[in-house]
Amino acid sequence: MFFRVIFIFNCAAKAGLSLNISDSCPSMCKCAPEEVIHCNRAGLRALPGEIAASTVSLNLSNNYLRILTTNTFRNLTFLHSLWLDGNNLTFLSPGTFHALGKLRELDLSRNTRLTYLHANTFRGLLNLISLDLSHCNIFEIHPLLFSHLPSLESLNLASNNMRYVPQAFSNLSSLTRLSLESNHIEAIGRDSLKDLESLYDLNLRKNRIWIIQNGAFTKLLRLGVLNLGHNFIADLPNQLFDGLIQVKTMHLEANRITDIGCTFRLLLNLRNLYLNNNQISSISDSAFSYLNKLHFLHLSKNNLSSLPLRLFVELPKLKYVFLSHNPWKCDCKMFWFLRWTAMFRGALEGLDCAFPSQHNTTALSVPHPMDCTVPPELESKDKCGAAGTSMAPGPPAPTSKVFLLVVTCHTWYFARRWDSSVAMF
Ligand SMILES: *[C@@H]1O[C@H](CO)[C@@H](O)[C@H](O)[C@H]1NC(C)=O
Ligand SMILES: *[C@@H]1O[C@H](CO)[C@@H](O)[C@H](O)[C@H]1NC(C)=O
Ligand SMILES: *[C@@H]1O[C@H](CO)[C@@H](O)[C@H](O)[C@H]1NC(C)=O
Ligand SMILES: *[C@@H]1O[C@H](CO)[C@@H](O)[C@H](O)[C@H]1NC(C)=O
Ligand SMILES: *[C@@H]1O[C@H](CO)[C@@H](O)[C@H](O)[C@H]1NC(C)=O
Ligand SMILES: *[C@@H]1O[C@H](CO)[C@@H](O)[C@H](O)[C@H]1NC(C)=O
Ligand SMILES: *[C@@H]1O[C@H](CO)[C@@H](O)[C@H](O)[C@H]1NC(C)=O
Which ranges form a coiled coil (predicted)? Predict the structure, then answer.
């Protein structure tokens, strides 16, 4: 059967019959090469009839298409890529794409009248890898909408009207990228994301998130990038990020965070941490313990007046630290910091009092050295520990008592820690 079809096709082609594919290029479109049809900005209100069934790529961007029916794409069974962005789509009939079993990429973005998608809208798209639904006005998604998309790897739902994380993500086990940026989501439930076991990049930036249930991220064992920037997050409970063992980049900038406790303690692969533009006034002294890969730390635009002793001392990979726009008090509590900066090989920005020029230290607003006694915090224990887990390395072995020996030297102070880690200073 298969061979017979090929045979007939060949005969027809040789005889120069009606199989000249270029002939079927709609007049308002460009077809080059033949299977790639560009009908973008062609003023189309409906799909042109003459589109060849062999078409592989069809660009219908920026037209006036309004309704797609089950017949619209029925014959285009070879289609790999379909762009329908920037149209006036209001309704996608259930089964619109059912013949497009080879489609890999579908762009429906910028259809601002698209508000609701029926459960069977995407039925048949068994090989779809990338789906763009950004910049529409979707406010509700049927729980089974994506259950027909077993191959989906990238889903963009940015800039819509969603107020909650839809239930519809339950069968997307191949999904690696998900954007829900610029919606109106307020909460992340414990089960909202639980089936997204392949997810690498999760973008929740610019929502109104203020509640995240503990355990919301525990199943995201492959997540590498988590963007929670520009939300209303105020609390960071210690268990919040449990499970994110692979996360490399965490965005928490522009939230309402006031304290950093032990929330980051198990993020052993964290390299970039954005905490700028919050209201952080206190950081636990072991907040960043075990973050052996931390490379980039952004703490600008907070409410920090000092940093706890040794906060950065055991971060071997730290290269960039941003500290500007904080109400720093360069007093005794920050002695450790002055000496740490002398050893630090990376770039440090924004804590000016730590950088007096060599011959002029009058800018230093430190108190008289005799006022500096050993602050009680020096003896504090690692508050984070590795509580309840066996994955984190143990806290550093307790060191001997700490002595602070203060010497005046052109109002420059040297304090010395008399223990095994003297070399760090
Ligand atoms: C196919 O179409 C092209 C361009 O329209 C034309 O130049 C060519 O002669 C046609 N070939 C046949 C066999 O009709
Ligand atoms: C489709 O057309 C739009 C212009 O309307 C263009 O910006 C876009 O790059 C095209 N897409 C592809 C894949 O060629
Ligand atoms: C689809 O192809 C059939 C023949 O196989 C044809 O009769 C029909 O008009 C085509 N439909 C569209 C929408 O092109
Ligand atoms: C888009 O569709 C709506 C009806 O759904 C219509 O009122 C409007 O004129 C259309 N806009 C364009 C540019 O075609
Ligand atoms: C998820 O997919 C499985 C098969 O892979 C199917 O049995 C199940 O019904 C689907 N669940 C939903 C909610 O669609
Ligand atoms: C900044 O921190 C101080 C305590 O260090 C607190 O009294 C003040 O209210 C904080 N300001 C803001 C805007 O959070
Ligand atoms: C030392 O710094 C102060 C304030 O920054 C400045 O006014 C003064 O001229 C400087 N003195 C010298 C000797 O550079």
Answer: none
Is residue 153 located within the same domain as residue 268?
Answer: no
Domain that holds residue 89: 13-172
Give the CA-trace dihedral at 336, 416, 316, 287, to 10 degrees: -50
pLDDT at 372: 56
Ligand 1 atom, smallest distance to 25 CA: 5
Residue of 147, 167, 175 to test ligand 5 pocket, by largest number of atoms within 8 Å of CB? 147
How remote is the CA of residue 386 from the centroid of ligand 2, in Å?
A: 51
For the residues 32-50, what does the mean pLDDT come to? 88
User: Do 221 and 77 fall into the same domain?
Assistant: no
User: Which bound ligand lies closest to the C-alpha atom of 363?
Assistant: 7
Name the average pLDDT for the chain: 81
Token match 């991220």: residue?
217
Select from 107, 138, 172 the last residue of a domain. Answer: 172
CATH number at residue 323: 3.80.10.10
CB 226 within 8 A of CB 200: no
Compute the Cα dihedral for 44, 48, 53, 55 and give only its sign.
negative
What does pTM read for this prediction?
A: 0.80
Domain boundary among 143, 172, 201: 172
Task: Report pLDDT for 417.
Answer: 29
- Whether residue 367 is preceded by a cis peptide bond, meaning omega within 30 degrees of 0, is no
- Decide if 7 is inside a domain: no
**Number of structural domains found in the chain:** 2
Tell me, what's the pLDDT at 371? 52
Instruction: Compute the distance from residue 72 Cα to the ligand 1 centre, in Å.
Output: 27
Residue nearest to atom 11 of ligand 6 (CA): 303
